[in-house]
Amino acid sequence: MSALVSINALSFAWPGQATLLKINNLTLTPGERLFIRGPSGSGKSTLLGLLAGILQPDQGSLMILGQDFTRLSGHQRDRVRADQMGYIFQQFNLLPYLSVMENVTAALIFSAHKRKRLNRPASQEAARLLSALQLPEVLWQQPVHKLSIGQQQRVAAARALIGRPPLVIADEPTSALDAGSRSAFMQLLFAECEHAGSGLIFVSHDAGLEPLFSRVISLNQLNGAKHAEPGL
Ligand SMILES: Nc1ncnc2c1ncn2[C@@H]1O[C@H](COP(=O)(O)OP(=O)(O)OP(=O)(O)O)[C@@H](O)[C@H]1O
Questions:
Q1: Which residues approach ligand 1 with their CB closer than 6 A?
Q2: Could you give all domains of the chain from N- to C-terminal order, each with its CATH number?
Q3: Residue to substitute in 11, 12, 36, 46 for testing ligand 1 pocket (most ligand atoms within 8 angstroms of CB)
Q4: What is the pLDDT of residues 111-166, one digit of tens each?
Q5: I need a surface site. Which of 60, 69, 169, 197 has the fewest CB within 10 A?
Q6: How would DSSP label each residue in 43-70?
Q7: pTM of the prediction?
Q8: Which residue owns the Cα nearest ligand 1 atom 25?
Q9: What separation, in Å, do the N-terminal and C-terminal C-alpha atoms of the chain show?
Q10: What is the residue with the minimal CA distance to atom 5 of ligand 1?
Q11: Least confident window among 64-68, 149-153, 177-181, 211-215
Q12: Which residue's CA is the nearest one to ligand 1's atom 18?
């Protein structure tokens, strides 16, 4: 089976800055659950931005679901992301004045592929995900800006998971959750990924979650770039 993600000799620098990431090799196979750890500022979110096609490497190759992202236009990468990925952003990126339901189902408006993978009406699938994440039903028609940060994080997760994307990318998705919600969140995330056969790339500072993953990597060990973090 071909890799979901394959990185070779990739390097990336933010404009005017020293090289932040130099990654010789990283592969994710379908269904694999990868945990990436690293101190603040080590480049975890930047790496996820590259994998999602939001950023472009300066050198090297980046194959996502069999497509060479370095050869696609920004618009083509947006298409792959909308159709084949679910991305839980660190800052959620929800549409504040739309309701919880509208935010979750918005992911389907932009992707016929995600709509096709549903096996029930969109609102029912959104309800199933929101219930599994223990988000009270009274909130579902509320605009998301009225929700707590932890509740918004769960809406962002439901939006990423709807339509069974083959690749799920999660950037610190449990940072605002209490222990009970975190546990429900992790169970749903794993159950959904397993059911859909999705690969998962998960970045977190929460080392307690590491044993749940099939592979754990340290970005500092993977990264050949010398960066200016104190003590590194
Ligand atoms: N949009 C940007 N423009 C310029 N530099 C950036 C930008 N985003 C991040 N950086 C720089 O890249 C480096 C790595 O940032 P990044 O957010 O990838 O780290 P991180 O490991 O995800 O950190 P954290 O754990 O705090 O979220 C930092 O030095 C940061 O200042």
A1: 14, 20, 38, 40-46
A2: 5-222 (3.40.50.300)
A3: 46
A4: 999 999 998 999 999 999 999 888 999 999 999 999 998 899 899 999 999 999 99
A5: 197
A6: SHHHHHHHHTTSS--SEEEEEETTEEGG
A7: 0.91
A8: 40
A9: 37
A10: 14
A11: 177-181
A12: 43
